[in-house]
Automatic annotation (TrEMBL):
Lineage: Bacteria, Bacillati, Actinomycetota, Actinomycetes, Streptosporangiales
Keyword rRNA processing: no
E.C. no: 2.7.13.3
Matches recorded under Pfam families: HATPase_c, HisKA
Originating organism: Nonomuraea typhae
Reaction catalysed by this enzyme: ATP + protein L-histidine = ADP + protein N-phospho-L-histidine
Every Histidine kinase domain range: 143-358
Name of this chain's protein: Sensor-like histidine kinase SenX3
Entry keyword set: Kinase, Membrane, Phosphoprotein, Transferase, Transmembrane, Transmembrane helix, Two-component regulatory system
Transmembrane segments: 6-23, 35-60, 66-86
Family annotation (CDD domains): HATPase, HisKA
Tree of life domain: Bacteria
Amino acid sequence: MTAMGLMAAAGLGVLVALAGIWVSRWRRAQSIGALMAVVVVAAMAATFAGVAAITLQMVLEGSARFVVLGVVAVGALVGTCVAAVVSRRVVGESRRLVEAVRSVPFVAPQGLPSELQIIANTLEEAYARERALEGARRELVAWVSHDLRTPLAGMRAMAEALEDGVVTDLRYVSRIRHEVERLSAMVDDLFELSRIHAGALRLSRSHIGLADLVADTMAGAEALAAAKGVRLAAAVEAPVPVPVEADAGALGRALANLVVNAIRHTPSDGTVTLSTGVSGGMAYLAVADACGGIPPADLERVFDVAFRGETARTPTADGGAGLGLAIAQGIVEAHDGEIGVVNAGAGCRFEIRLPPASG
C-alpha cells in the first residue's frame, strides 16, 4: 500500500508540475507577481496532492486523516499568503523602477531587491554614457560647423576675387588648394571617427614588431618635425619588445596621431621622444613631448571628441583636424588596449598599452 501511495503521489506531482509549467508559459507576459503565484500554487498543490494520496493509502481512520489533511491545507494557505506578500513587494519595486526609468534624468532608486538594484545601477550608468555621448555629438556638430564654415568662407572670397579679375595673384590658388587639402583631411578624420563609433572599424591583425612601427612613424613625421624645428628621438627597450597582434596600418595611424600632436605642441628646439618596451606584462608605445604640460582638470578629457581645453589638441593653422586623439583612442580600444596621458618632465607623456601576441 505504501508503494502504491508513493507512486500515486509521484504521478500527481508530475501532473501538477506539468500544469504549472504550461500555465507559466501561457501567461509568461504577465507580471512577476502572477508568475510567482503560479509557482507557489503549483508547489502547494503538488504537496497537498501527494500527502493526500499517501494519507488515503495509510491506515488512518476518522479524525486522524482529517488532521493530517488539515495540517497540509494550513501549510498551503500560509505559503500562499507569504507568496502573495512577497510577490506584491516585488511588483511594487518593479513599478518603482519603471517609474524611475520614465523620469528625466534617470536616477537609480535605492533599496531594491539585489537583482533589480543591479539592473537599476546598470541603467543609470548606460544613461550617463548616453548623455555624455549626446553632449559630445552636439559639441562635435557645433565644432564642425565652425571649422568648416571659416575656410569655406575664405575660399569663396578668394574664388570670387579671382573670378571677377580683382586679383591675379597665384598665391590665392595655392591658398585655396591648401584649404581644400585641410578640409579633405578633416572629412577623412570625421569619416574614420564615425566608423569607430559605429563599431565598423575592420582590423586585419598580424604579428608586428613595435620597434619597426616606431621607426616607420618617425620616418613619416620627419618632414613635419623639421619644418617646426623639433627633434625626434627614439628609445627602444633592449632586447626588442615582444610582438603584438595588431593591424599595422591602424595602429600606425594611432601612433602617428600622437606624434603629430606632440610635434605641433612642442616649441622649436624641443624634443619629441618615442619609446617602446614591456611593462607589467603589457607592451607599450609612448610619446613624450615638451608642450609644457596639460592642466590636471583636462587630463581625463583630452581624448574626448571636440574637447577644447586650455592646451587641448585642437585644429591649428597647419591643417590639423583636431580629432587625432579621439581617433587614436578608438583604434587602441579596438585592439583591446589602453591609452592614457600623464604630465611628465617638460611636457606630457601619451602611452599606448597592448597585450602581447599569444603563441
